[in-house]
Amino acid sequence: MNRIIYADNAATTPVLPEVLQAMTPFYCESYGNPSSIFYSVGADARRALDEARRSMADSLGCLPEEVYFTSCGTEADNWALKGAARRMARQGKKHLITSSIEHHAVLHSMKALEREGFEVTYLPVDGQGFVRPRDLEDALRPDTGLVSIMFANNEIGTIEPVEQLCAIAHSHGAWFHTDAVQAVGAVPVRFGQMGFDLLSLSAHKFNGPKGVGALLVRKGVLPDVFLDGGGQERGRRAGTENLAGIAGMAKALELAVTGMEEKSRRLAALRDTVQRHVQAMEQVKVNGPEDPAFRLPGTLNVSFAGAESESILLFLDMAGICASSGSACASGSLDPSHVLLAIGLSHALANCSLRLSFGVQNTPEDAQAICRALDSAVAEVRRRSAIW
Ligand code: PLP
Asked: Among 129, 247, 264, 354, which residue is least crowded by beta carbons within 10 Å?
């Protein structure tokens, strides 16, 4: 059996050994509840929690008290949007703005808010997936409470001009949230300096464990409480903390931030090897920014006209290669990706699109093997296709 080549790192990533090592003490040894501070096991847990928060703050350029731990990126997005929207509604601001290419954690939260009576504007994007600052200017109104635009797109890797968009939102009195789930650990993110009010992240995208994330909340910004219960997270996010997960997330982020430049160069080289190869094939379209500086270093999204992605994925799987036809949450459904439709692809071409996303474990040999497998998979699928 061939070694598995995992090229779906935008869906999730493997936990690094150092990260697992940082997590294990909190299962059977330091298993105390961080709220039980009157005996040593609990106090040890509290110290570890405080230390993880400090480490996360260092890695992200924010204050420790601006870090709120959550159960995942989806929870952070839900809290940011629903918490901020409900808070701003009490000042009479019931209009929200987002983009049409957000993750479903944002889009479905916005739909839920529409059912609560909020009005939402969905900004279009250009052919490379960029939100145009001019469109945001035009959409802002005196009653806009919150703008939420993702830092980097999970399907095509577009890195949005979020600092500029944030400044525009602020100049109209609106809060700015960014879903940075794909960006944190991949590109530099400095929360304080960039001016955001709210930022979501998730550990499993940067070689941390699944089921843990964080919402950064700028000091002085107070979204409504989302989970009611005990007094954890300064009374703003109830629930006993996932200490092992949090310790793993802090370690994973520290490693990601320390080695970021080198890792980016390596991932971009793998991405560009495969990109150059597929661009030499017949009727291929690379989706996302033309300038690789504005695309996530490890992400490549390609459409192979006449070759449906579900079929290509089966051939790749037989060669031991894991890739994706879009976002993991949407795969398994035959609906074409909303992101690819938003950048102007036809339904037919969107259904012939593949996302390859590289991670720290991938090698130049993996990239070569992917190129060879794509040659035969695309040729074979097109040979059998009724639409080619
Ligand atoms: N936002 C983006 C951009 C994502 O890519 C994802 C996961 O794919 C999420 C949010 C959801 O994060 P989680 O899987 O931690 O709930």
From this structure: 264
103 C-beta closer than 6 A to ligand 1: yes
Question: Which of 243, 258, 273 is the endpoint of a domain?
Answer: 258
Please indicate, yes or no, whether residues 247 and 288 belong to a single structural domain of this protein.
Answer: no
Structure tokens at 188: 């530099």
The Cα 377–Cα 369 span in angstroms is 12
Bridge partners, residue 286, by sequence = 302
Is 166 considered catalytic here? no
Pocket test for ligand 1, best of 13, 77, 78, 103 (most atoms within 8 A of CB): 103
Tell me which residue range forms the domain holding 355.
5-13+260-384
Q: Is there a single domain that holds both residue 234 and residue 270?
A: no
- The whole-number pLDDT of residue 321 equals 98
Indicate if the pLDDT at residue 332 is higher than 60: no
Q: Is 72 in the pocket of ligand 1 (CB under 6 A)?
A: yes
Residues 275 and 303 in one domain: yes
Q: Which of 98, 153, 154 for mutating ligand 1's site (highest number of atoms within 8 Å of CB)?
A: 154
Q: Which of 345, 347, 343 is nearest to 124 (CA)?
A: 343
C-alpha 215 – ligand 1 centre gap (Å): 13
Average pLDDT, the chain: 96
Same domain as 239, residue 337 = no
pLDDT tens-digit map of 224-242: 999 999 999 999 999 999 9
Structural domain count of the chain:
2
pLDDT in tens, 50-102: 999 999 999 999 999 999 999 999 999 999 999 999 999 999 999 999 999 99
Contacts of 316 (CB under 8 A, 6+ apart): 322, 323, 370, 373, 374, 377
Residues in a beta bridge with 295? 158
> What percent of the chain has a predicted confidence (pLDDT) above 70?
97
